[in-house]
Every structure is written in C-alpha cells, then in structure tokens.
Design goal:
Layout lengths: L2 E4 L2 E4 L3 E5 L2 H17 L4 H22 L2 E10 L2 E10 L7 H5 L12 H8 L2 E7 L3 E9 L10 E8 L9 E8 L2 E9 L4 H16 L5 H11 L6 E9 L4 E7 L3 E6 L2 E4 L5 E2 L3 E2 L5 E4 L5 E5 L20 H12 L6 E8 L10
Antiparallel strand pairs: 1-2, 2-4, 3-4, 4-5, 5-7, 6-7, 8-19, 9-10, 10-11, 11-12, 12-17, 13-14, 13-18, 15-16, 18-19
Length: about 350
Amino acid sequence: MWLLHVGNEIWVSQSVVLSLTDPSGVGAARRQAARLCATIGFTSVRTGNVEIAVNEAGNNLIKHAGQGQILMRSFELEGIAGLEILALDKGPGMVDVSQCLADGYSSAGSTGTGLGAIKRLSNVFDIYSQPRIGTALVAQFWAKRPPESGHALEVGAVCVPLSPAEASGDDWSVITQSGGHLILVVDGLGHGFFAASAAEAAVKAFHKLSSGSPLEIIHGMHGALHSTRGASLAVAQLDLDRGMINYAAVGNIAGVIQSGDLRRSMVSQNGTVGHELHRVQQFNYPWSPHSILLMHSDGLLNRWSLDRYPGLLARHASLIAGVIFRDFQRGRDDVAVLVARQAKNMRNTAGQ
C-alpha cells in the first residue's frame, strides 16, 4: 500500500478487499477492520464501533444478497486518523432506503437495527440502492470529531490488485494547490511487483513535479520512469477559480467529466510514459461546481454509464466509484477508479 497525500489529508491508495460468501467471511472482515484500527491508533471504543459497523454491513451482504465485497482503506485528516468502509453487493436492493434505515424495519426477520447503527456510529454515511441491481454503502470513521468546514474536494477511489497479487500496478494521488487540485491516475505496464514499482515511481515523480502543468509533469515523469516497465497515466489539473480542467494523458487511462446528463470524454494519446512518448498535448475542458471527474485504468470496462443509476450523481464520491467498480470491473487486471467532485460539508447524507 502507498500513502498518498490529498492536501492535508493522507489516504492509503490501495483498498483492502474482502469477498464475503458465507457468515465466516463476516468474522474475517471484522478482524481485518480491528487490525487496521490498531495500525492507525483508534481507541478501543472507536475500534468497537468500527467492528459493529463491519459486522452489520457484512451480515446484510450475506442475508440479503448472499455475497458481496467489503473494501477498507485508512486516511488521515488534519492529523485525525480515519477509516473508510465500502460495502458492495448485487443483491435485490431496496425499494425505499429511508424505510430500511429506520430501526425496527427488517425484510429478513432480524431486529432491523443494522443500517441505523452504522449511520449513528459513523462520521460520514451514505447509501445507494436499486431494486434488482444491488446496494452500495460507505461509512467513514474518525478517531475524533473532524473539522466542521470539510474539504474543497470530495474524493472517492477504489484501487485493487488482480487477485492473488498483494500489490497493484494501478495507483492514484491528489495534491491540493492554491485555487484547485492536481490529480493523477497511473497504470504500470502489466501487473504484479514490477507494475507496482512503476506506479510507485510515477507517484513519487508526480509529487516532485507538482508545480508544473499536466503536460510538463508528464514530460518530467517520462525520464523518472525510464528504469521501470513504464506506465499509462493521466494528470488532471482542476482549476476551481477559472472553472476548467487542464488535462494530459498517455495510454489507456480514461478520463470523463460528467455534468448532469452531459458526459464528455477527455483525450488520451498513444504511448508509454518512460519508454515511448510521442507528441503529447494538453487539453482544456470546462468545469462547473456540479460536475464530477471520473478517471480509471483499463481494469474497468469503458461501456459504463451513469445514466443507468438514477440519483447516483448526488451521492458520495466513494459510492459512485464503488458502484462503477462493482458493475464494470474486467476481473483480469488491476483496477483503479477515482471520482472527484467539489465537496459539500462533511455529512451523513443517506435519505436526504
């Protein structure tokens, strides 16, 4: 796992992924969550809260969907440690999310307190569900109360290696700048250890070169990756003051700006950074406060469409990334999906 800085926020870019197919998997997920809590210094009380939430989320996956995935990643927010839990399934879904969140409601003969407990215990909670398609749930936990002001950018990301590899050749990073943000998604050539080494070199070079434009950064990274396998990568500079994205990409990284019903694909050029770099251009695209940026490696199918998911654009960025990952991963390569949007204040949003 690589530690990546998002302004004054530090994320572990790769997710810990657990596939649940029976009740024993719920216990394994709970123990993994406890280990992660220990590494980031959670108190025993906060660790207990996380374990309850993972237990409830896991049991819901098994009871209602039969199987699913729980993804976990840690972060640090202005010196405050945190943990994100993302639960994904392709089960029957919910017709009325608000009803399912109410204590006492259950469609499986249980006490009906699971989702409500997760919402109460977490600092940020959101859920998205469609009948006959499935449910996605995100819950974030901090060691203590987070700052009230929130962040200018809300980032959701899924980054997982091709099983059984432990290190992903895909990676991402976000750097906060004056008036905007600089965003990287990288796919090291192939997968496994050497691909991961190329991705790590790209992230390190990205941070060293972050004062330049996307085009300048890519040219600088070309030299930094020469001793590696090389990589496909995209750099987006989100200029909030001017309402635009400056973008340059090489290879099979997809970049899309979605503004309401309008979807705009951004240009990526042929080549491999570190080995074969042709003439690279930088492009400028309009950005509005209601837009989202979605970038992903070729571990994800390109035929995804948010039109299939009414209301998803209004949900937390982690839910958007999670749903797209759940439904469109190829299953034969590492995958990275990153979603960024201008943030609302930190909030529990489910049912709003």
